[in-house]
Structures are given as C-alpha cells and as structure tokens.
C-alpha cells in the first residue's frame, strides 16, 4: 500500500465511523431522543446555520475552526442521508454517486476530449450542459422558473444578486450606470413618499425595490453586497465593543450626544490600529 492509498484508507475509515455514529444516534434501541425526533424538514435551520458558520470560519482563516465547522456541516449531510435511508428514499452512496457523475459530466475538458482556452469558456460549457440536463429531465428552462428557484432557496440578498445577474444576461439591463442611479433616486423617492403617507405596507414594498436597485448598483461596479454588508456588520460590532471598553456603566445609561462622542472615539481608535 503506497502513501496515497494509506491516506485514503484513513479517510474512508473516519467517514465510516461517522456514519456508524450517526446510525447509532438514530437507532430506536439506545439512540438519542433528540436525533430520533429529527426529520428532513426540522434540520433545515441547522443546515443553514452550519453553512454560515463555515463561511465565518473561512473569513477568519482559523484552520482549526474551519475544520471543525466543516465537520458540523458534514454531519448534516450524513444525518440527512441516514434519515432518507431509513425511509428507503436514498443513501449516502447515492449522494456521492450523483455528485461524482455530475462533476464528470460537467467537466468534459478534464474527463473527455473537449478543449477550452479560458475560464469563461469553461463557465459557458457548464451552463450549456446544465441546460441539456434540464431538457433531458424535462425541467423548465424558462428564466422565470430559474429565478423562482433562487428566490425560494437562497437568502434574500444572495437571491437578489443571482436574479439581477440572470435578468441582465437576458437583456433586462440599463444602457449605462447613470440609468441605474436614476432608478435608485426614483425608488428612494417612492420609499420616502410611502413613509410620509404612513402607508407601511407600501413602504415595505418600496424598501424591497430600493434594496434590489442597490444590488443592481453593486453588480454594475462589480461589488459584492453580501460581503459589503458583512463588513459593515463587523465594523459596527467592533466599534460598539470599543465603546463598551471606554465606559464605566451600561451604554443605555448614556444620552445620544454622549453615545455619538463615544462612537467617534471608537472610529478614530480603529483607524489608528
């Protein structure tokens, strides 16, 4: 057995042990009551939570944390496979076979004789193969159906990014950046008008339109609104944390003028760092 085979053997053994542990947790005899109570649907929040925790760990570049969070996410995959297997829907072997076949099918430049010269060409071929797969499965290739999938399955901000990008590819696009900014001003005015009229239902709709327009602005300037907002969240928390270090009593005991002064002090401190 060479080094590669030995490493692969250890990996397979570790995965097999995880599968056995999850199966025991789901066993009616001596299993965990919490795990036994779970369903495919009840675990949805945990899948989302674990995925975001993986992203947070990746941002931190803490390799130990990344490995731990990827393990938590892997647990969700194995747990879903175990639940499905119990109902004779599918199992982990089916999952692995499906994704392996998909990767081979969508990479003909690696696993077949197709020649490509750029990353853009790889992406174009990927999309063509996806369309062919949908046609074979008799799935809809309508743009609206694709966008519905994004709206249904992704967090709203990420869905807006995908919807905006796909709509632009189909021709729903401004001629220049000025057109996007004009749309932003229009939506902002309509939102303000709804607020002034105290029509909160309409205001909520206009707020959505305004946010969607901001996503389009970000796309025009090749900015990622999700990353931008995450950065703002982190900076806000950093400044708030510093404010709490500067004071000797709870923040709610300070008035707005004092809080603003503390806020500016925290901003200056972070700039120096």
What does this structure look like?
It contains 13 helices and no strands. By secondary structure, the protein is an all-alpha fold. Among the domains are: 3-105, MazG-like (Helix Hairpins, Orthogonal Bundle); 227-272. It is globular. 6% of the residues are buried. The model has no long low-confidence stretch (mean pLDDT 93).
Q: Can you tell me the CATH superfamily of the domain at 3-105?
A: MazG-like
**Sequence stretches where pLDDT stays below 50 over 5 or more residues:** none
Q: In CATH, what is the class of the domain at 3-105?
A: Mainly Alpha
Mean pLDDT across the residues is 93
Distance linking N and C termini: 53 Å
Give the amount of beta strand, in percent. Answer: under 5%
Stated plainly, the CATH topology of the domain at 3-105 is called: Helix Hairpins
Discrete helix count: 13
SSE series: HHHHHHHHHHHHH
Helix/strand-derived class?
A: mainly alpha
């Amino acid at each position: 057995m060479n080094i590669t085979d030995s490493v692969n053997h250890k990996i397979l053994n570790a995965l097999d042990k995880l599968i056995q542990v999850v199966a025991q947790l789901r066993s009616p005899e001596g299993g965990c009551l919490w795990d036994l109570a779970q369903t495919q649907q009840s675990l949805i929040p945990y899948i989302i939570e674990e995925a975001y925790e993986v992203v947070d760990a990746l941002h931190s570049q803490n390799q130990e944390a990344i490995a731990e969070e990827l393990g938590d996410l892997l647990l969700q995959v194995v747990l879903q496979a175990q639940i499905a297997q119990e109902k004779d829907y599918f199992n982990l072997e089916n999952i692995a076979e499906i994704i392996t076949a998909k990767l081979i099918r969508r990479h003909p430049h690696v696993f077949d004789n197709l020649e490509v010269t750029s990353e853009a060409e790889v992406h174009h071929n990927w999309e063509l193969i996806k369309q062919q797969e949908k046609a074979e499965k008799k799935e809809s290739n309508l743009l609206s159906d694709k966008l519905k999938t994004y709206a249904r399955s992704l967090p709203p901000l990420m869905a807006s990014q995908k919807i905006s990008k796909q709509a632009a590819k189909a021709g729903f696009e401004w001629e220049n950046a000025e057109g996007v900014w004009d749309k932003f001003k229009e939506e902002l005015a309509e939102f303000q008008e709804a607020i002034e009229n105290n029509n909160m239902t309409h205001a909520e709709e206009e707020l959505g339109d305004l946010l969607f327009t901001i996503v389009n602005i970000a796309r025009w300037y090749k900015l990622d609104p999700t990353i931008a907002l995450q950065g703002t969240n982190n900076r806000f928390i950093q400044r708030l944390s510093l404010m709490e270090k500067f004071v000797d009593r709870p923040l709610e005991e300070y008035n707005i003028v004092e809080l603003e002064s503390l806020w500016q002090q925290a901003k200056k401190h972070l700039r120096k760092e």
